[in-house]
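Sequence in, structure out.
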Amino acid sequence: MPPKSSKSAVRAAPVLADGYSWPELHRLVGTTLRAGISTLVLGHPGVGKSTLAERLAAEMGLPLVDIRLAQRDPADLAGVWFPDPASRTLRAYPPEWAVAAAERPAFVFLDEINAAVTRLHQAAAYQIVLERRVGTVKFHPDTVVMAAGNLEEDDAIVTPLSSALCNRFAHYTLRVDARSWLDWGAAAGIGEAILGYVARYGEDVLYARDGEQMAFPSPRTWEMASRVFRAAEESDRKRLVSACVGVEAAERLFAWLKIYRQVDAARIVRKGQAIDFTTGAHADPSFVYAATYAVAAWLRGDEEVTDAQLPNVVRFLRSPGLDAEYVFLFLRQVRRNDVLFARLRGLPEFRALAGELVALSASTYT
């Protein structure tokens, strides 16, 4: 965990060749759109592109106009022409969404912009992005345009965009980022076992597309798996999770669950059970991650922790072999229980531990 920086020592986030995390893009794309520049975000399926558009639209106070280009007829984008007998000319009838985006500010989201769309689709998109209009209907000056698409390596059907259209966008790539997803997942109620599994293995299990299986792991499908896991009978869980993330990913998850269920979090907190993470099977990183998440999940739940039991939490964090990275991981989860975390901070032994962690972070990043 990097130390808090003073204003004189703020470091800009590096520009990464493989893209940006979701929180980074949330800030960068928001700034770009507020500057009046149309934005194109590329990324793997299910990594949060649509969610980014929804969040930004809500934060900007704009109605979201969600247009899936691959599912629309070109006429839905550019409007249709009908003969006007009175003037003996053709009259344009724009789509309803375009009229709405002209009458008041809106957030126009062109999703799947490169998903095998035709040249007619691209021509309509070019008009929307470049001229900010549909036919004769011009958008409101405060209407913003964001587009999203898949990457070519995803085995998705991708149509290259014309250079003229590409040149009208600010371009960003959204990368798979386990830490950002874990923070989101903890707030969204993703199951603790799944969170612990992703924390243990990172991006390698959060997104894994081999091109052969229809069901595969992605941030979106892990959220689906968490929902069916919670709703299912024990005997059906593996099959239901497999339907969401694929057979191989489900097998690996359930192998991890066997380790996760070995941890008696209640005994650790209530009885002060000690664990030595330096010897035997307890030294396996998978078990260390499992214990870290299991205890954090127990503390974030509805279980009552007495004042007499609180020092046992600090005792756990000082377990032999529980390195600082696991302690930081634990604290990020427990902090979501504001009341409990405030009580922990009141313990002298916890404040001593926190001071050591701050000193360690300072020595690492200076």
